[in-house]
Amino acid sequence: MRDHLRAELRRVANTCIWSWHGFRAAWATEKTLRQWTLINIGSAALAFGLDLSSGERALILSLGLLILAAELMNTAIEEVVDYISTKTDPRAKKAKDCGSAAVALTAIAGGVAWMVVLLG
């Protein structure tokens, strides 16, 4: 039982390490990830500075994190497409455009949440 628990904790630790490596790699090369991170820091500061309910604050913070997650997934899609081929292909363009659209829709969701929270 103890060995099983130790192995599970090691898997969790490895997952955290690999996730951190992925974030750092994207941070080093993706300007948009850095921009969204700065926007999210400002958004979080505003969420904590305004008189918001716990639910409103949780929504704003969660959507901010989802924007970053979408940006990381978009980066992963772009990297894989570029790795597979340097040729221009409509399927590659579609994959990249869909990844970009996912980021845009997530950001719109964050903006809508802010509008609803601020305007009531």
Defining traits:
single chain, 120 residues, mainly alpha
Topology diagram in text:
Elements: H1 2-29, H2 31-49, H3 54-84, H4 90-119
Helix pairs in contact: 2-3, 3-4
Strand content: under 5%
Into which percent range does the helicity of residues fall?
over 70%
Biggest sheet descriptor: none
Which radius of gyration do the C-alpha atoms yield? 18 Å
Q: What is the overall shape?
A: flat
What is the terminal-to-terminal distance? 52 Å
Number of helices: 4
Average residue pLDDT? 96
Question: From the helix content, strand content and strand pairing, which structural class follows?
Answer: mainly alpha
How would you describe this protein?
The chain has about 120 residues and is an all-alpha fold. It contains four helices and no strands. Helix 3 runs antiparallel to helix 4. The N and C termini lie far apart (about 50 Å). The mean pLDDT is about 95.
